[in-house]
Amino acid sequence: MALLIAQIGSRHLLLLQRLVISARALPVAIRDQIPWIAPPSSFFVETNQLADTLAVIGNALTINFRLLHVERTNFRAFFESMDDLIFVTTLNGKILDINPAVESKLGYSATELVGKSISLIHPADAFETSNNTVSAMRSGLTHTCNLPLLMKNGEQLPSTARVWRGHWNGQECFFGISKDQTAELAARAALSRERDLFSAGPVFTITWDVAEHWPVIQVSNNVTDILGYTPAEMLDADFRYADLIHPNDLKAVVDEINWHIKYRRDTFEQSYRLRLYSGEYRWFYDFTRLMRDAKGQLNEIRGYLFDQSHLKEAQLALIQERQRLVNVINGTQLGTWEWNIATGEVTVNTYWANICGYTIAELEPVSYTTWQQLAHPQELARCEEQLKIHLADSDHRYSCELRMRHKDGYWVWVLSEGSVVIRDANNQPQIMAGTHTNINERKHAEIQLHRRELLDHLLVELAGELVNLTPTLGIDTVIERALGRLGHHLDRTFFCKIDHVTNTVSKTHEWTAEGVIPLRDQCQCIAIDRFTTFSKSLRRNEAVIIPQVADLNRNWQEECVLFVAQNTQSLFMPVMDGGRLIGFLGLDAVKLPHQFTNNKVEFMRVYANLLASTFQREGTYESLRDSVVRYDLLAQQTRSIAWEVNAEGQFTYISPLVESILGYRPDELIGKQHFYDLTPEAEREAFKAQAFEVFARQGLFQDLVNVAQHRNGQRVWLLTHGQPFFDANGTLLGYRGADQDVTAWQEALSRLAASEQRFRIVFDHAPLGIAIPDAKRRFIYINHAYAKLLGRDREALLGQCLDGMIHPMIVLKLQHFLRNWHRENAPIIRSIGVICARMVKWCGEMCGSR
Q1: What distance in Å separates the CA atoms of residue 63 and residue 673, rounded to the nearest whole number?
Q2: Which residues pair with 300 in a beta bridge?
Q3: Looking at the DSSP assignment, which residues form a beta bridge with residue 575?
């Protein structure tokens, strides 16, 4: 029995050992995807249960490993597909892995970066900052890095990085995602240029921070011309834009902005009053855009504002007019009517008839049909519909604006209002009474106001096109498009440009309506003296309105037909550059009569000024481009190198001409060499000390002659000029300047100095007496023979005036001789002359003759 128990125990133990071995092999088999040998079955129930349990665990592990593999595959795909640069580093900044975006944007391969310090891909001058940032991240003090990344070719990639901790292959690490800021910085630069261009017009731009009182963070320079405040005053930290808004308008403005922010309506228009620097309040139109970041968070508010006081004044006048009409109604000073609905008979007062130019007697018998006959067909149907609704439901007020024909044939706008005053027992309308109000003036004001609003919006759009000219959208295209829009309700618009070289005028742009014959080809190179009368008005910056060409006197008619046809109404608007006429805009009404209103004339004058500014700006840009070309050519001709160095003296820029003068390409010097590295070794330390002494006191480099060494070892003399530049806090950032190759000049000076030395030796030992006086006849040089000739000490004569050594009788003649001699020899020796023994002999002869 004991032997049987021992055998069973031994077998049980062997099965358990096999079970343990299979359990250990299970995770490895699942991970490596190789066959797993399950433990053999046994008559022991416990062993079989353990094996079954192990199989269940194996199935669970298999599923988990598969999920883990899928997650790793997805993560790797995400890691490699990101456009942003992803770095995985140790906590000490050692690179463990990078994504392909790093390789494509920085130019390094993964092999070149993995295992290196992250600080090596930051600029050398940021090495210490990079290490400090890594330390701060390790301590949890920061999670961002805004240092630029250094590309393999030496260029810097502006970037900003977000960093967090994690694990990589079981090791604690940093994950960093860097975003390329190049496009954003370029966009900001483009926006800055756009603001500069826009700042020359009648509209000013402004950007507010999303904070209390709306601090101003940007404003165009022309704000001073419009509001009176300087940009510096508005950008001051204590300046509150909200304080400029009229107290009666502030709440409405704030509520509207908050509503648009809440409901994410990012563009809207406002109209409110602003206090100028003078204290006066004026109305401004504000087109506002809410700017959001990539996450949709509001980060700033931008606005385009222009003075619309004239528009508001018209609106206020309209409101006052309406109020006056209410007062007139209350005082029964209106046309009244009473309509018997059953019979159609209408009773009116005198004013009702007078609105249309009639007396009551002329209209009798007055009935509903009378009103129908006077009403304009376009409004009659609508008014009758309104009457029908009111008759069925008295709660619906009857009020209708319509035109009624005046006795003289024109149309008068009338406001017809009324209500049912008597109903029968069945609630059927019997009598209806009301008023007629002459609203002709108001309706025309509304029409004019609407047209003015359209003109204002059109002006802003046209101004935007002029200030946003691009190489593909040039000024000719913009003018052609503008003429088409200016020609609304007209037949022809054009622009004529004056050529002051040939004194001719040509029609350079023209738009015509369908069916109107273009005149552009007939209006080319017309001599200015052919329209002297017409041009005098234009040169005085006066708009010229031609009611009808055929009605003009002979002189005007002969000149105007050069540009427009007979039976044409025209408006000519001069385009002035300062006080100079450079062209004019023209509007023609050919088919139908047209009235050029003051609003239209004012609009065309503003557009003409914008067009003149654009021509001036384009001319300035052309001059600037020519200036750049001339500068490059001058630099080549004068052999001048433009350069920039940082505060340590390292080149941050150098012009390409350095290669022809010193033999080095710019990329061999920029970011790699200091300016003193080009100095020959023997003079390097002295020159470096001299230069950095100027750096220390932030002085100027003026006419500094120094020597540099060409790549081939040749010595090149340079004349250096430079000045410092600083950041916003006044910290020295470096120097900018130019080096001119003066090697030939320096060698000439050396030869001249040697020649002068030899010449001085000859002078000193010449047997002939020689002296050099200045322009005031004082000795500045005397040789031994001349001093001996006068019997005086050589040193004592220096600085003495020659006049005291000449006989008084010939002093004046000698002075006259010297003046003529200096003048004749000035181009060669300027104010220095030479007196030799010949002059002494001449003086002696003069004395002997006396």
Answers
A1: 60
A2: 209, 291
A3: 583
